[in-house]
Amino acid sequence: MKFPMRGIFIAAAAICLAIGGYFAYKGETVSYGKERAKAKNVSANDGPVASVRTAPVKTESISTFTTVYGDVVPAPGAVRVASVPYEIRVDRVMVSAGQKISRGEPLLEIEPSPDTLLELEQAKTSYKISKQNLNHVKQLFYLKLATNTQMLKAEEAFKQASSKLENLEKMGVDGKRTIRSTESGLVSNVNVQEGAIVADGKPLAGIIAQNLLEVRLGVDPDDAGRLVSGQSISLSPVNEPVREKVTGKIRKISRAVNTSTRMVDVFVSLPRSSGYLLGEYIVGKIETASAYGMVVPRSAVLPEDGKNVLYTVMGGHAVKHIVETGLESGNRVQVFGGGLKPGDEVVVLGNYELENGMAVRVLLEQGR
Prior knowledge:
By secondary structure, this protein is α+β, with helices and mostly antiparallel strands. 26% of the residues lie in helices and 40% in strands. The strands form four sheets. The chain has a six-stranded antiparallel barrel. A four-stranded antiparallel β-sheet has the order 3-10-8-5, with no helix packed on it. Strands 7-6-4-9 form a four-stranded antiparallel β-sheet. Strand 13 (246-257) and strand 14 form a beta hairpin. The chain is rod-shaped and about 135 Å long.
């Protein structure tokens, strides 16, 4: 009988030790939990505890932008017109509209028209006759058989005939001639055809200098009134969104609505290194307003009974603030009033379930 009683005693002792260990562990767990709650200033008697994330109130600039579209057009003075000051016949057209061209490349081959050749022959004949007449008058003058007036008239006639012939020869009317581009750029238009007779001074072809392009944007009339000359605009091609953006500056704001687009034309100067092509479709981002003040994430502000509210965390509890909002840009919004100050932690996640004074537990993001 001794051995069974001894076994029962040992078993009872083991059970007691196990129970004691369990309560000791439970007590430590409860104590640890209370310490964590105390560290967060959350009391076990506060009722429901909401888990939230926060972000600090910052003092910084905020801007609003509007997106507009347009195209690349020639800037004022960008078009160079090729022409000649005498009537010609077009022998050969060597370019077409839209073609890229370098300075010095040939555009056209021309030759004098029949009327121009006749004018040249008449000028040569007039020069020859006036020269002979001048020599004759000089001889008479030396013999005192001609007056000073006759001498002056002969000299004037020779001078005019000589000048006209010289000008015609300088213009190249005595043969075929190649018209070359004076700029590197694009051929905007060709106004003639091979074999055509073209009057003096008429445009033969137009060249748009590559470094003299600008962007014409269509801006809503309400936004156009907030723009100013010299303002910077971020530009990029519509078809190449990954291409590096270019910063242009507003050169001119039209004071009339374009009847075709119902928008206000805004002309933007391009840097010479833009590399944009004539007619390329462009998207622009224009700053329409800016301010400096307290800024919070947009998710921190909630609508409530026609007002804007947000919550901060103080002493482990949610504090409600009624605020006014200003400019919005992306996920940021400007706020005023409500007793906020820079550095306050505003609730950005979990705020929909909050009430004023509610206990909260702040979930820390990695890195904070």
